[in-house]
Amino acid sequence: MRRIICLRKYLFSQDHKIIGLQYYLLALLAVFVSITFSVIMRLRLTWPSDVWFIMSKLLPTAFNETGQMTPEFYLSLMTMHGTIMVFFVLTLAPQAAFGNYFLPLQIGAKEMAYPKLGLISFWLTFLSFCVLLSAFFVTGGAPLTGWTAYPPLSSIVSSQPGQARGMDLWLVSLSIFSLATILNSINFLITVITKRTTGMSLMRLPLTCWGWLATAMVSLLAFPVLLAAGLLLLFDRTLGTAFFLPSGLLIDGKVISLTDGLPLLWQHLFWFFGHPEVYIAILPAMGFVSHFLATFSRKPVFGYRSMVFATLAIALLGFLVWGHHMFIAGISPYLSMTFSLLTLTIAVPSAIKTLNWFGTIWGGKIQLTTPMLYSLGFISLFITGGLGGIFLGQSSLDIYLHDTYFVVGHFHLIMGSSAIFAIFAATAFWFPQIVGRQMNEDLGKVHFFITFLGVYAIFLPMHFLGIAGNPRRYAEISEFLYLNELQPLHKFITIAMLVTVNVQLLFLINLITSIFAGKKVKENPWKATTLEWTSSSPPSKDNATTIVYRGAYDFSLPGANKDYFMQTEDLPNNSLDNS
Amino acid sequence: MTSVDIKEKSNDVTTGGGGNNNLDNFRGGGGGGDDSNDKNKTQPKEKKSSPMLFLLFAIIPIIMFFGAIIFVYIVREMGKAWKPISMPSAVVSSTLVLIISSFTLEIARSALKNKLLEKFKRWVMISTVLGIAFFTSQLVAWKQLMAKGVYMEATNPHATFFYILTGVHALHLLGGLLGLSYILLGAIYYRFTAEKRAAVDVATGYWHFMDVLWIVLFVLLFVWK
User: Fold this and answer.
1) Average pLDDT, integer, range B124-149
2) Closest approach of A315 to chain B, Cα-based (Å)
3) What region, left, alpha or beta, does residue B215 occupy, with left being phi > 0 and alpha being psi -120 to 50 degrees?
4) Residue A137: partners with Cβ closer than 8 Å, 6 or more residues away
5) C-beta atoms of A547 and B41 within 8 A
6) In the beta sheet, which residues pair with residue A564?
């Protein structure tokens, strides 16, 4: 009997807070798996001829007779690293984990609009993660097309060992994931529309909520396209259709004719989803950072309205630029130019956001707590990564840089690292609300500084590798004379990476020990203004709901008798003393 | 069992006490003039989630999903291997059946609005039967094509699209049929009243959407060249 209660309460709970934590733990597990993959990849890339005794015993199929890891296994690891990071870390942690937990709390709702839907979408996501990992254990192993799965390589079963059952499982996994994300987005959108408490107008929403709202809109429009494309590809592989299979292809010694499919179609569909996916990862992160910067500068968010419109503009423009991933795929130069222009247009709302962040901290009483440091780190990484984007957005430059490490460095900075920094910030910021204790600030600061320098040490040199012409997705570069000189730089990146990865253990230790031994804090330790701090921490099952009287960022009002006003504080009584 | 009891009790004590205190504070500040007004001010209104909104947000991803496949269809139609298949005759009857089912469902809905529960039951039943007839008719269409030797294989993209579009549409319509069965059960046991008809509205709306979608697919597959 008690076991059933326990299952109901922690495993199959309909409480949005438990679901949020479940998503967070899944993302944590995924990031651990995925980083392990990247460590193995970097070791293979840097010391290709070294024999790895333990691993070759564990995974005999991944190694050839001389004891060297096969290039195919490297590609499998790369595919899975990308897939897990993009879907199970960057999509889950900022949106599904923190969104499920804090969206209802921040808008003053008792629960999500459809609690059962939240439960279903989490377990579908979990299922899809299991299906994805199971690809390693079928004949042939995991797919090796990269997370973009371009046909015809991905549509021909016999093309590579990993392209057999592994690829099918990959497609099934992503289809389940798309379905789960669509359901979750529906839940988010209806929650924001119908569940806001009295007085919580749209322009009083915290910017975090705007981030989640915009991301839910983008997910709702983008993921169905991935689902459709994935199903068509699956039909190509299993039912003998040929949507993406061109004619005249030589397969197993036979020339295929009469198929007349178009591999480029997959790229269009995939990137119509794939580019908005980038913003699915970064929009909630932008919301977090705006929120934390205001709180720790004790100033209102500079240009709240323009922040909201910039968020929506980025969400909209994200759908119009997918072609910039295809400049080298042979699309018409006129189309290239259009996509190039639209891509560079995204710099405008991005710049509005960045300038507003500076405006927020300008002249503020800045408190350098760990969430604040991570947020500042986010801005730095976002600007650096964004500058790389200006190069890649121009079709003429992209033709040279596209298949090089320049792209790897660029998207790891802007999408990977900066979103991860926002996740770090959100974890440290909301930890007291979830646990009632604070994470260790000293450990957090050490972790921040080493990770910050480490991330630059890893990804900035990759830009130089790219300019020098080092192609991406190669398991080994020692065979190419013109790349030999770059090997020391690769060694440097790998060492920086090993240090940075190990420093992440500090974060993990900090996270776990703080649950039991962190400094106990009173409610609202950061003196924040939003509604989640009005419920008890750790929150009880039922959220406190109160009326909202003011916007989300009433810090340091002129003439006020105190530094901040919660959204629940009535306006006329105690806001302005002298005016 | 006892430990659970104790837990519940202690919970009651803490939350009950806290709640009371809060209320006292709020009421004290407001002064005892207009009680009802005060209540409105301190207690946020509980809003109901709207089922029609759910329908809308369910339809948007479905449109995107079919839109993606239709996009592929239009591009592939320009290809060299495109050979239009002749329309299986059963498709016409399924189209007619589906359109009629939308109208019968609308009659049922207006009957419910006018509190004619018997009539509502009758017309929901008719609509459900028509829905099942649509599925049967589609099955016949597939059989007709297969009898002619037209399969899903790559040799003819138009046939491929016919099987996939009708298949995916049927899968979505299955959801609509589940909804219809649900309101049919409700109608048989007189569970619906004129006020409690959100489920009827949602199921009807979804059915109409599937109907329109089928007409779009029909035009795309056999009329539009």
Assistant:
1) 93
2) 16
3) alpha
4) none
5) yes
6) A555
Q: At residue A432, does pLDDT exceed 60?
A: yes
Tell if the CB–CB gap between B61 and A235 is shorter than 8 Å.
Answer: no
Helix A418-435 to helix A98-107 angle (10° resolution) is: 60
Instruction: Say which residue, A253 or A151, is predicted with more confidence.
Output: A151
C-alpha closest to that of A393 among A317, A304, A447: A317
- Is omega for the bond preceding A538 within 30 degrees of 0, making it cis? yes
State residue A520 phi and psi, 5-degree precision. -70, 140
CA–CA gap between residue B59 and residue B62 (Å, rounded): 5
Q: Do A545 and B68 touch (CB under 8 A)?
A: no
**By three-state DSSP, how is residue A251 classified?**
strand
Contact yes or no for B64 and A224 at CB 8 A: yes
Query: In whole angstroms, what is the distance from residue A370 CA to residue A375 CA?
Result: 8
Contacting residues of B for A192, CB less than 8 Å apart: none
Q: Is this structure's pTM higher than 0.80?
A: yes
CA distances from A305 to A167, A197, A205 (A): 45, 21, 11
Following DSSP, what letter does each residue of A493-545 receive, concatenated?
HHHHHHHHHHHHHHHHHHHHHHHHHSEE--SSTT---SGGGGS-SS--SSPP-
CB–CB of A186 and B49 under 8 A? no
Note whether ipTM > 0.95 here.
no
Quote the CA–CA distance of A22 and A416 in Å, as a whole number: 21
**Nearest CA-CA partner of A271 in A166, A165, A402:** A402
Cβ pair A149, A83 in contact under 8 A: no
Chain A residue at shortest CA distance from B154: A241
The residues, any chain, with a CB within 8 Å of residue A566's CB and separated by 6 or more, are A529, A530, A531, A533, A534
Contact indicator for A556, A564 with CB cutoff of 8 Å = yes
Closest partner residue to B44 (CB to CB) among A186, A540, A545 is A545
Q: Which of A540, A541, A530 is nearest to A566 (CA)?
A: A530
| Of A41-50, A76-85, A476-485, B150-159, highest mean pLDDT | A76-85
